[in-house]
């Protein structure tokens, strides 16, 4: 080991030790990040609320959702009975819930069978708002504290005042025929709707616009828990499907570096070590690496071979064989890329392929029907082969 390299390593070790000493001698600051994670005990986590769900719903089972709503509830849908095999209330509390349009549609389907959906958020999926006939607006003129109250006189004494972490969003438009106003938020002398109940099929959507009210900071302050209890009282006492965008990150806890990455000083020291190592390798390799001889890669003759075999079948007019191989290769592509079972090409298969591929459902249905027709046909002609090839290529390129 050269003398220069020893000096570099010594300086790096001293820097590493110095950062650790400074970091551990400084009291950790309060983490005000708004995670809305039920495992976080920081001010804006939801640990307290999640732990109290068993008390709020004593006859209910609380079930964590570790996947998207679509992935979770679609597994409970019975295509034979055309109904869901489970009932309950889906619940999410987050400023920006990661609910895509496909999951939003699944939640609407789940609600239509008599289940409840509770969402406390600042923003909702666009297709959900369009379907429910609601709109929200962000008014930046709101400032200071706000009073959160209910329209039901039974909860007149459960109003609370919040000063920290409020959002300026309110419901600016609702469908009064299907929607009931349950609560308001009052800034200064003006009141705005912030909690509504709207029917959808046999079930209901409960939409709330101040998720900050369910965080640890506000639930442990004064007697604010009474407000959260009153909000929850509108929900049925059935299974609670509690969703959190941060649940997937729990998998990172098995990493050997989880402690180093969880401490700011150790994390930055680790990054510094990696950066220094990379820089050293770059400069060291630049001085010592020999010239790399350029080797011409072997020619890929797969395409030429495929064309030759295809022309052979085409010239012999073996259309049945070509159609069969085209269909077999296409279905194998569906299994490999979209992980779908291709044994039964029914309406469920068409729906799942549409959702996973993002392609037009009518085009997919035409293609699948064409494949089913050709598989049942005793003899195929050149026109059948050309039409099938055109439809499959359109699927690949769309």
Notes on the protein architecture:
It contains 14 helices and 13 strands. With 398 residues, it is of the alpha/beta class. It has 3 domains: 62 residues, no CATH class; 199 residues, Rossmann fold; 96 residues, no CATH class. Strands 1-13-4-5-12-11-10-7-8 form a 9-stranded mixed beta sheet, covered by helices on one side. A hairpin with a 4-residue loop joins strand 2 and strand 3. It is flat. The two termini are 59 Å apart.
Shape: flat
Question: What portion of residues is helical?
Answer: 40-55%
Architecture of the largest domain in CATH?
3-Layer(aba) Sandwich
Note the total helix count. 14
Mean pLDDT: 85
Give Rg in angstroms: 30 Å
Strand percentage lies at 15-25%
Q: Strand tally, please? A: 13
Helix-strand topology string: HHEHEEEHEHEEEEEEEHHEHHHHHHH
Cα-to-Cα separation, first versus last residue: 59 Å
Text of the CATH class of the largest domain: Alpha Beta
What's the number of structural domains?
3
Strand arrangement, major sheet:
1-13-4-5-12-11-10-7-8
Main sheet overview: 9 strands, mixed
Structural class: alpha/beta
CATH fold-type name of the largest domain: Rossmann fold
Identify low-pLDDT runs. 249-253
Question: Keywords, please?
Answer:
14 helices, Rossmann fold, 398 residues, alpha/beta, single chain, 3 domains
């Amino acid at each position: 080991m050269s003398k220069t390299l020893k000096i570099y390593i010594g300086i790096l070790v001293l820097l590493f030790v110095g950062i650790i000493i400074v970091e551990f001698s400084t009291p950790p600051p309060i983490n005000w990040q708004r995670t809305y994670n039920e495992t976080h005990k920081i001010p804006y986590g939801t640990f307290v609320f999640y732990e109290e769900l068993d008390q709020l719903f004593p006859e209910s089972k609380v079930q964590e959702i570790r996947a998207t709503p679509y992935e979770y509830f679609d597994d409970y849908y019975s295509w034979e009975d055309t109904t869901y095999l489970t009932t309950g209330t889906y619940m999410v509390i987050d400023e920006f819930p990661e609910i895509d349009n496909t999951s939003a549609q699944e939640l609407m389907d789940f609600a239509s069978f008599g289940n409840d959906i509770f969402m406390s958020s600042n923003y909702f999926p666009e297709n959900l708002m369009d379907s429910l006939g609601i709109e929200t607006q962000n008014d930046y003129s709101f400032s200071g504290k706000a009073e959160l109250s209910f329209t039901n006189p039974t909860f007149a004494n459960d109003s609370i005042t919040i000063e920290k972490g409020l959002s300026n969003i309110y419901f600016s438009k609702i469908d009064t025929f299907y929607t009931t106003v349950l609560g308001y938020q009052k800034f200064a002398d003006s009141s705005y709707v912030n909690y509504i109940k709207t029917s959808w099929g046999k079930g209901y959507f409960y939409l709330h616009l101040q998720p900050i009210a369910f965080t640890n900071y506000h639930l442990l302050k004064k007697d604010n828990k009474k407000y959260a209890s009153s909000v929850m009282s509108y929900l049925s006492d059935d299974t609670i499907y509690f969703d959190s965008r941060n649940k997937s990150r729990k998998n990172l806890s098995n990493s050997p570096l989880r402690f180093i990455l969880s401490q700011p000083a150790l994390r930055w020291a680790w990054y510094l070590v990696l950066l220094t190592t990379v820089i050293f390798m770059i400069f060291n390799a630049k001085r010592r690496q020999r010239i790399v001889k350029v080797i011409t890669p072997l020619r890929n003759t797969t395409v030429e071979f495929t064309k030759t075999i295809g022309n052979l079948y085409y010239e012999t007019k073996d259309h049945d064989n070509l159609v069969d191989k085209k269909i077999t290769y296409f279905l194998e592509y569906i299994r490999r890329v979209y992980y779908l079972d291709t044994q039964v090409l029914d309406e469920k298969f068409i729906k799942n392929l549409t959702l996973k591929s993002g392609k037009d459902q009518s085009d997919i249905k035409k293609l699948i029907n064409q494949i089913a027709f050709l598989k049942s046909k005793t003899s195929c002609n050149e026109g059948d082969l050309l039409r099938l090839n055109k439809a499959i290529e359109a699927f690949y390129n769309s």
